[in-house]
UniProtKB/TrEMBL annotation:
The keyword Disulfide bond does not apply. The gene is LOC112237888. The active site is at C115. It comes from Oncorhynchus tshawytscha. It holds the Pfam family UQ_con. Residues 31-184 form the UBC core domain. It is an enzyme of class 2 (transferase). This is E2 NEDD8-conjugating enzyme.
Length: 184
């Protein structure tokens, strides 16, 4: 189980020459972000069944990847990779998320930008980021972009939304073509 708490204890013991659990060195500070990331293992345990998180560098829990494999809807059978970076100012600002998989989606640009209200630092409708939000909310929000949060009325990728309005079957075919070429 990967936890920041065990890593911090181990690192503190190495840096100070003390055994973990011994007297602490008050000059060693841990950021609020890192304190909030201590429970990353809980995130892994509470993921939707269609999601899998991975940590390319176990020493950087603030940078991880999320794979979403929808089991229903237009995007069923695709595997979409997201890169999530948690900034130092977290939880006052939202994580930075980018879709690494090319996709034909009204709320995800082909270049990877994502339109998801909880990722907005400032939101008119009050559904944007708030310090009470968690990484779990982000993961569940990204997962929902493929089902109930799929929004053709407020698109980021206007061409995809208009395509859906014009011809739903052709839209479905183009989505499947993108999955075949980019999301396997």
């Amino acid at each position: 189980m990967l936890t920041l708490a065990s890593k911090l204890k181990r690192d503190e013991g190495v840096k100070t020459g003390r055994a973990p659990g011994g007297p602490s060195d008050s000059s060693h500070r841990v950021s609020i972000r890192d304190r909030l990331l201590i429970k990353v293992a809980e995130l892994e345990a509470n993921l939707p069944s269609t999601c899998k998180a991975s940590f390319p560098d176990e020493n950087k829990l603030h940078h991880f990847q999320l794979a979403v494999s929808p089991d229903e809807g237009y995007y069923q059978s695709g595997k979409f990779q997201f890169e999530i970076n948690v900034p130092e100012a977290y939880n006052m600002v939202p994580p930075k998320v980018k879709c690494q998989t090319r996709i034909w989606h009204p709320n995800i640009a082909e270049t990877g930008e994502i339109c998801l209200s909880l990722l907005r630092e400032h939101s008119i409708d009050g559904t944007g980021w708030a310090p009470t939000r968690t990484l779990k909310d982000v993961v569940w929000g990204l997962n929902s972009l493929f089902t109930d949060l799929l929004n053709f009325d407020d698109p980021l990728n206007i061409d995809a939304a208009e395509h859906h309005l014009r011809d739903k079957e052709d839209f479905r075919n183009k989505v499947q073509d993108y999955i075949k070429h980019y999301a396997r």
